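Our preliminary data section would be incomplete without showing what the modeling component actually yields. Below, a chain of 469 amino acids is followed by its predicted structure, encoded as C-alpha cells that our downstream tools consume directly.
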Amino acid sequence: MKGVEILKSRYKLILGYTGVILLGVSIAMLTPLLTIPFFSYKKLEIFAFIATAFFTAVIGFNLKKFVDKETNVTMSIQEGGIVVLLSWITTLILSALPFVISGQLNFVQAMFEVVSGYTTTGLSVVDVRETTHMVLLWRSVMQFLGGVGLVVIMLSAIIGPHGVGLYNAEARSDKLVPNIRKTTKMIMIIYVSYIIGGIILYVLAGMPIFDAINHSIAAVSTGGFSTKYESIGYYNSTTIELITIILMVLGTINFAAHAILWKGKVKEFLKIGEFKTMLFMFSLSIPLILFFTTKDMFESLSKSISAVSTTGFSTVGYTDWNDFGIFILVLMMIIGGGTGSTAGGIKQYRVYILFKSLWWNIKSYVFPRNVVKEYSVNRADGKFYISDKHIIEVCSVTTIYMIMFIISVVILMAHGYGMRESIFEIASCLSTVGLSIGITSPNAPNLVLIIETIMMFLGRLEFIVVFYS
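Predicted structure:
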C-alpha cells in the first residue's frame, strides 16, 4: 500500500511541474499581442492567441495543483525526462493552435512550424511576405523559449531539489555554479544579454527595430527564422552579416564556457576542447568552401563566409552549389554546436571525445600492457577524466543519430527525392540547422513534413532522453 502511495506522489510531481511549465508558456503566448498598438490584425487572429493562451493557462493551473511544496523528494533524471517530454509535446500541440484557429496553416504544417521554432531549426512553411507581425513575433518567441530550453526558463522560478533531474533531462550538464537555480538564472542573464546586445547592434547598423528583435533572437538561439523572404541577404549589408555571424557563433558555444569568459578567464576558455574543435571546424570548412565552391559564385568574401553559417540565416541559395560544398555543409551540420548551447547536431564535444578516444586507443598499443593511463579532457567545468562508460555513452548517442539519419534519408528518397537533397534536408532537420535545398515548403507532402518534424524533435531533445523516458 505504501508503494502505491509513493508511486502516486511521483506521478503528481511529474504532472505538477508539467503544469508549471505550461503556465509559463501561456504567458509567452500573450507576447505577440504587444504588437497590436503598432499593427492592424484580423479579430480571428487576435482571438486565436488569447483563446490558446487561456486554454493553456487553465491546463497548467490545474496540473500545478498536484505539486506539494512540502514534499522533499529528489526528482530522478528519468522522472525529469518524463516531465521534459510531456511538457514539450503538450507545449508543441498547444502552440500550433493559433496557426490552425486563424486558418493560416493546417495541423501538420502548424506542428512542423512550431517544432521548427522550439527546436531552433528555422525551417518554415510560413510565407513571411503574406503573414502578420503577430505571427512573426510568435515564431521568434518560440525560438527564444526553445533556444535556452523550456525547462531551463521555468527552473528559474522553481525552488527545491527537483531541479537537478529536470535540468539534466533537458539534455544539459553545463552547471555554471553548484546551485541549479543559480545556474539557470545565470544562463538566462547571458542569453538575454546577448539578445539585447544584438538588437542594439542591428539597430545601429540600420535594421528596423521589429526586424532587429526577431533577428537577434533567431541568431543567438541559432534558430534562423527571419522576417524577410530573402533572410539576412535582404539587407545587403556586410555589417549586418558580420553581426549575425558573431551572434550565431556565441549561440553555438556552451553556456558554461560563456560563464568562464564573462569571468575574464580567457586562458581557461581557450583550453576547452569543444572550443578548439569549433575553431578547427571553421578554419577547415570556410577555406575549403570558399575556394572549391563559392569563389566564382559570389562577388565578395563576406558573402562566401556568410554562406557557410548554419543557423538557418542565409545570404544565398544552395541549389547551385557543387557536391563538394554540399558535403562540407552536411558534415558541419551533423557535427553541430557545443553541448549545453542553443545549437543541435551530434555536438562538438562528442566528436572531440570520439577522436581523442581513437587516438588513446592507438597509443595503448604502443605502451606496455602493465602501464595504467588516465585520460582527461578540458571542459568548461574543468578537467574531466574520461571513463570507458562515458565513451560508450558518446558512441551510443552518435550511433543512434546516424541510424535515424539513414532511415530518414531512405524515406525521403523512397518518396521520390534525390539522395543529395534528402541527405541535406535530413541533416538540417536532425541537427536543427534550418537550411533547405528546396524540399521543405508549404507545398511539401504531409509525410515529408511529418518525418522532418520527428527528426527536429529527436534532434533537439536528444535521443537518450526521449528513449530513456
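The radius of gyration is 22 Å. Residues 154-173, 299-311 have pLDDT under 50 and may be disordered. Preliminary results of this kind motivate Aim 1 of the renewal.
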